[in-house]
């Protein structure tokens, strides 16, 4: 049965009148949106229930700090709804709606008034992609693309598919977790997947399961129907305090997904977005949790990478030594940083790359002579640091 969508916390019968009143300033700032299926997964007896943390607002969201656009997506937006940060990949934001609003959303700006970042100018976006032959794949995201009617999804995919240099597409979606009923038996949608999943080209789905309790029988049916239609599915999740910052929880999630043929892909460090500090786990603690998780998982789950989606690129957290932490650019915004390794003195309280201030070494395959000890992160980041200063002015003050 299709769930009912709920946009007003006053409709939540499990919250007391006092709780609802306390949450008013939160939902005025960051909208609440959920559905009866997902709300049904909450154990309301447990105030720290992980599913509750994902979807129910909390007053901790009003804590100071963070930016509206912490990865500086605006800097790489080439026309409305289209970002191009890494040569071969274009990111198309196609929807302002999701099956629910995650309280830790790093793109929560798109749910706010007067923001049209996820309302694409498709004509311009497609013209840009056509004109940039280095783009060989398009990541379709939002919001959630599966909130669009199948007809629109088909039109979009079919247009992208007609561009010869676009070799494959990925759809980023949390719908299998938020509302699997939108997929189960939805022949129009499954036909689209079938049509664009051939032996030559595959349609990828990057799902967003954050906790093993989201892997319900309905979610598994939805995933299985997508796979039967030819989709290749991988999963990514941020590391979230009080949700999945525990190796037992993560290994259960990874093993559950791997048994369905869905290997875990990225595990993201929670971005310093406004309202998100309550979910943030220190990077070094997160690394240790992921290493412990790998002890209980197969080689498939070990393929996941712990990633910081920084404004300068995607950095993998590679290793800790007694004194240092080692990062490597998995994707770099600047060509000269491709494959660059950064070594910093450890900082157990760091929750973002910028919290590491003492650089020990920086090396990229393209480097020649280099005196790392004279450089600090701010020197290394150069122009990007200036961008950040301007960007941080967007930070919202708490109400
Ligand atoms: S599904 Fe993704 S875009 Fe939608 S609210 Fe959650 S984190 Fe944000």
Briefly summarize what is shown.
With 399 residues, the protein is of the alpha/beta class. It is built from twelve helices and 15 strands.
Question: Strand sequence of the main sheet, in spatial order?
Answer: 3-4-5-6-7-8-9-10-11-12-13-14-15
Mean pLDDT over all positions: 91
Number of helices in the DSSP assignment? 12
Count of strand segments: 15
**CA-based shape:** globular
| Low-confidence sequence ranges | 370-374, 383-399
Which percent bin holds the helix content?
Answer: 25-40%
**Which molecules other than protein and nucleic acid are bound?**
iron/sulfur cluster
The biggest sheet amounts to:
13 strands, mixed
Structural class: alpha/beta
Euclidean distance between termini CA atoms: 39 Å
Order of helices and strands: EHEHHEEEHEHEHHEHEHEHEEEEEHH
Strand content: 15-25%
Q: Whole-number radius of gyration? A: 21 Å
């Amino acid at each position: 049965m299709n769930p009912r969508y709920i946009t007003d916390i006053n409709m939540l019968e499990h919250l007391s009148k006092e709780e609802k009143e306390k949450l008013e300033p939160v939902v005025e700032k960051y909208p609440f949106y959920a559905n009866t299926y997902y709300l049904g997964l909450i154990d309301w007896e447990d105030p720290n229930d992980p599913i509750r943390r994902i979807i129910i607002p909390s007053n901790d969201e009003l804590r100071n700090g963070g930016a509206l656009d912490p990865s500086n997506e605006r800097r790489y937006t080439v026309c409305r709804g289209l970002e191009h940060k890494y040569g071969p990949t274009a990111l198309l934001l196609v929807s302002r709606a999701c099956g629910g609003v995650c309280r830790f959303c790093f793109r929560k700006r798109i749910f706010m008034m007067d923001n049209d970042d996820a309302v694409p100018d498709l004509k311009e976006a497609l013209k840009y992609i056509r004109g940039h032959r280095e783009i060989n794949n398009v990541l379709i995201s939002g919001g959630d693309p599966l909130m669009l009617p199948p007809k629109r999804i088909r039109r979009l995919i079919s247009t992208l598919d007609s561009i010869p240099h676009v070799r494959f597409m990925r759809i980023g979606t949390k719908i299998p977790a938020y509302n699997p009923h939108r997929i189960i038996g939805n022949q129009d949608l499954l036909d689209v997947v079938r049509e664009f999943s051939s032996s030559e080209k595959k349609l990828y789905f990057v799902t967003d399961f954050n906790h093993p309790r989201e892997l319900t029988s309905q979610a598994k049916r939805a995933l299985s129907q997508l796979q039967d239609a030819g989709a290749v599915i991988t999963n990514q999740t941020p590391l979230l305090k009080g949700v999945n910052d525990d190796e037992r929880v993560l290994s259960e999630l990874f093993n559950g997904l791997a048994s369905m043929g869905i290997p875990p892909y990225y595990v993201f460090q929670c971005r310093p977005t406004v309202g998100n500090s309550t979910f943030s786990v220190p990077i070094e603690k997160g690394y240790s949790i992921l290493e412990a998780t790998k002890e209980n998982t197969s080689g498939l789950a070990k393929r996941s990478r712990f990633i910081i989606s920084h404004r300068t690129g995607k950095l993998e957290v590679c290793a800790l030594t007694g004194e240092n932490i080692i990062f490597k650019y998995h994707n770099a915004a600047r060509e000269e940083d491709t494959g660059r390794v950064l070594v910093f003195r450890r900082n157990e309280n760091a929750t973002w790359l910028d919290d590491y201030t003492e650089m020990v070494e920086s090396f990229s395959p393209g480097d020649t002579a280099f005196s790392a000890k004279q450089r600090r992160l701010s020197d290394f980041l150069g122009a990007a640091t200036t961008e950040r200063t301007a960007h941080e002015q967007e930070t919202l003050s708490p109400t």
